[in-house]
What we know:
Layout: E1 43-46, E2 53-60, H1 70-75, H2 78-81, E3 84-88, H3 89-98, H4 101-107, H5 111-116, H6 118-129
Antiparallel strand pairs: 1-2, 2-3
Helix pairs in contact: 3-6
The structure holds zinc ion.
Zinc ion binds next to strand 3 and helix 6.
Amino acid sequence: MGAIAITSASPTRAIVSKPAADSPAMTPASRELDDDHTLRRQATGSCPLCQRHTRLTFHHLIPKALHNRNRYRKNYTREELQLGINIYRRCHSGLHALHDEKTLGQELNTLEQLCNDPAIRKHSAWVAKQCD
Ligand SMILES: [Zn+2]
């Protein structure tokens, strides 16, 4: 019998990303959870914005450049300022290209808000179609 067994993998599994050896500074996906339960280090997984399964980078939901401003020091705990999401670097650079830090910190500081932003959605849809 020469039948090839095709298992019904989930749609996301169909995208196979080859390990890119682009940046020597990147560490292998070994450290996962930091002490405050946030995924901070280099990790591999599905990007919540474009759904690609690839290496992810950490995005501070409140950009670090704003952490010392009174508005943030008053309204957020140190732990909250450290919260973030792991996203694909193309999506990550998209966020910062589309919105300045103030907008990100004030209006787009949850994953839900990021996902609902029309400009980011458009960018993520584009990222999802790229093949590198
Ligand atoms: Zn993405």
